[in-house]
Structures are given as structure tokens and as C-alpha cells.
User: Which sequence fits this backbone?
């Protein structure tokens, strides 16, 4: 047993004190895990656009001071009462949504939207007792998405931790805890392209390229990347993208351009921008009779879009997905195995790396739109 079990741990964390201001590395106190909670030593974390979104807090409820971060990998330090399927030393990926295994959603083969632990960006405390496990001088520092991985140690509900193969390199598989699983799963679990089919991917950031990677491993013969930034096209080739369309190069809707390129439309499309115009294009660019479009990107809360019902009557399908339809505890360990068996590639998603003390550089890179994932290496 480690000497820290049952004790408060003092460690470094990057605290967001207010919206849009650089994070500050502070010494925080991390309380021991309570019932159904686990304390995790974070070894690697990476920055996802969702962290930036809630750090800027322009369209969201501001919750500060807060420890952001949700894409990460670590090792269990200690477990709270009632935790049976994890023990100290286990390798885990924390996930922003969960799997309680008891609710109707968890019992359904079709859903991964756990009633108890599904994403709640406004909650800054633990679900068990409504309190934060982080503090500085006795004052609470709030949690983010139940994970708060921008800290050397964090406390997470057991239902939000995927126990993975201890041989998997944590510095690589950490990206599966959020964005890469979201995009990859949207293609392989929801769009399900057949071998030799055509797939259009809207938005070529990390999630879109993960969707493209899903199409590549599914054996799609044409993968059409759609993005307003032509600089992204070169990099996208590594992820199987075969053709590129920049909607700005045309004076007609991009769905018409894609339909022309493909003799009536693509077999599958995956929308990874959250822009409603891209959503309409993604739906309207699929082939009648069998085309399926999948929405991944998160829109503004007041957004609505219009399309003709005839598009559905002509046997096009529109679907949505959350976290690639993966159940965190049941399914993510298997995605790690896919990587271990060389059935998918992950290294190419990690384009930058910084030590934890320079975490603000990762924010700068993302704000400038440079690279895909910036790995943040903890300096224990």
C-alpha cells in the first residue's frame, strides 16, 4: 500500500482562475476518494478543444476557479469504498462521460448515454456528496467534466474510468479518452461504411481525422475531406483522405459539388465541425437510397437547421452520435487493443508535446489552429 492512501495529497495543478486568463500552476490539496471514487495519478494529458471552449466560457456558464482537462491517462493511486473493479496500480483512461452499469442506458446495447454519469459541463463537484476534492488553503477548486486531468492527481467516479492493458503506452493511448474515440467510433460504430465505399468527412481537425482513420481502416476507397482551411489537406493524407474540397472554392453548395464528384452522392458522411451549414451539407451530400450521414460536432445551443423531408423519403438517413457510441468501461479497453494490434494508428494525432509547467503553450497552439493534439507530460 502506498503511504498516501487515505491521506490528503499535495501536488501541482494548473488552475483556471478566470475565463480566458492563462492557467496558473498552483499547489493544491487533493482529498482521498470517497465511496465509488478513485484517485488517479495522471501521467499524460492532452488538450482538446472542449477545454478551450469552457476556459473561454463565452457561451457557457462560467465555473471558476476550476481545474480543466479531460483527455488523459494515468495509474490508480487509491480507491474509495465500494470500488471493486479497480485497484492501485491499474492503468486507466478517465472519460468525460461514464458507465454506471445499472441504468436503462447502460443496460441497453444501443446506448452509451448513462443516466447517472453522462456529461455535465456545469457541474464542478463530485456526484456523491456535491463537494469538490480539490482545495487551496481550504477553499474549493472546482472539477471539470468529472475528470480534471490538469493536475498531478485527480479524483474520478469509478464509472468514468476505463481500465486498459498495462502494456499500452500511456503517452499515446491518452488521446483515446476523448477526441480520437469520438471520431473513430462515429465512423466504425455509427456510419459503418462498407469496404470499397465512399465517405465524406466535414472538418479536418483531430476528431474529423479520427473519423477519416475509421473510414480508412474500414476499407473505404474514397475519403473526401471537406474543410475551409486548405492548409489542413496535406496532413489529412496521412489519415487516408484521398480528395479534398474547400467550399470557399465554389459558388454553389458543397453538397452539389460532392454529388457531382461521386455520381449522385457519397455512401456515408461524418460531420465534425458543429456548424449547421456543414450539417445540412453532410446530410444532403449522401446518395439517395442508402446514404447515411452522422453528426458528431456540437452546435450552438440555439441552432436549428432546415432540410426538405423529401431527402428522408428518398431513403437518406441522418444519425447523431455521442462519444462514438462507445461505453467507456465496456468498450474503450477494446479500442486500446485495436491500437496494440496495429489495427489503427494513433501516433500521427500527436503533433506537439510540452512539459506540464508549459501547459499554456498548448492553449496557444490550439488557439492558432496549429497541429492536432499537444501532449502534456506530467513532471512527477
Assistant:
Amino acid at each position: 500500500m502506498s503511504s498516501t492512501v487515505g491521506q490528503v495529497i499535495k501536488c501541482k495543478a494548473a488552475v483556471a482562475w478566470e475565463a480566458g486568463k492563462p492557467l496558473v500552476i498552483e499547489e493544491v490539496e487533493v482529498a482521498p476518494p470517497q465511496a465509488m471514487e478513485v484517485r488517479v495519478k495522471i501521467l499524460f494529458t492532452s488538450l482538446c478543444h472542449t477545454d478551450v471552449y469552457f476556459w473561454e466560457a463565452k457561451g457557457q456558464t462560467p465555473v471558476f476557479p476550476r481545474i480543466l482537462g479531460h483527455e488523459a491517462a494515468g495509474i490508480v493511486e487509491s480507491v474509495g469504498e465500494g470500488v471493486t473493479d479497480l485497484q492501485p496500480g491499474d492503468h486507466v483512461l478517465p472519460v468525460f462521460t461514464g458507465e454506471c452499469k445499472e441504468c436503462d442506458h447502460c443496460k441497453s446495447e444501443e446506448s452509451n448515454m448513462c443516466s447517472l454519469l453522462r456529461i455535465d459541463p456545469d457541474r464542478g463537484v463530485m456526484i456523491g456528496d456535491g463537494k469538490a476534492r480539490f482545495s487551496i488553503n481550504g477553499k474549493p477548486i472546482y472539477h471539470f467534466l468529472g475528470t480534471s486531468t490538469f493536475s498531478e492527481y485527480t479524483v474520478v467516479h469509478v464509472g468514468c474510468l476505463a481500465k486498459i492493458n498495462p502494456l499500452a503506452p500511456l503517452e499515446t493511448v491518452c488521446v483515446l479518452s476523448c477526441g480520437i474515440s469520438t471520431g473513430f467510433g462515429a465512423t466504425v460504430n455509427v456510419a459503418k461504411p462498407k469496404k470499397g465505399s465512399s465517405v465524406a468527412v466535414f472538418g479536418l481537425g483531430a476528431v474529423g481525422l479520427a473519423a477519416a482513420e475509421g473510414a480508412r481502416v474500414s476499407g473505404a476507397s474514397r475519403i473526401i475531406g471537406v474543410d475551409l482551411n486548405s492548409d489542413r489537406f496535406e496532413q489529412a493524407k496521412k489519415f487516408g483522405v484521398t480528395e479534398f474540397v474547400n467550399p470557399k472554392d465554389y459558388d454553389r453548395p458543397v453538397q452539389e459539388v460532392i454529388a457531382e464528384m461521386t455520381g449522385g452522392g457519397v455512401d456515408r458522411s461524418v460531420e465534425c465541425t458543429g456548424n449547421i451549414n456543414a450539417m445540412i451539407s453532410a446530410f444532403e451530400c449522401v446518395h439517395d437510397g442508402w446514404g447515411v450521414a452522422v453528426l458528431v460536432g456540437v452546435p450552438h445551443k440555439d441552432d436549428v437547421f432546415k432540410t426538405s423531408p423529401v431527402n428522408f423519403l428518398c431513403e437518406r438517413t441522418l444519425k447523431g452520435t455521442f462519444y462514438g457510441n462507445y461505453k467507456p468501461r465496456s468498450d474503450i479497453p477494446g479500442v486500446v487493443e485495436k491500437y496494440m494490434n496495429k489495427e489503427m494508428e494513433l501516433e500521427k494525432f500527436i503533433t506537439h508535446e510540452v512539459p506540464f509547467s508549459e501547459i499554456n503553450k498548448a492553449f496557444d497552439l490550439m488557439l492558432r489552429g496549429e497541429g492536432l493534439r499537444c501532449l502534456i507530460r506530467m513532471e512527477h
Q: What stands out?
A: The chain is about 25% helix and 25% strand. Residues 179-191 form the longest helix (13 residues). The chain has a mean pLDDT of 97.
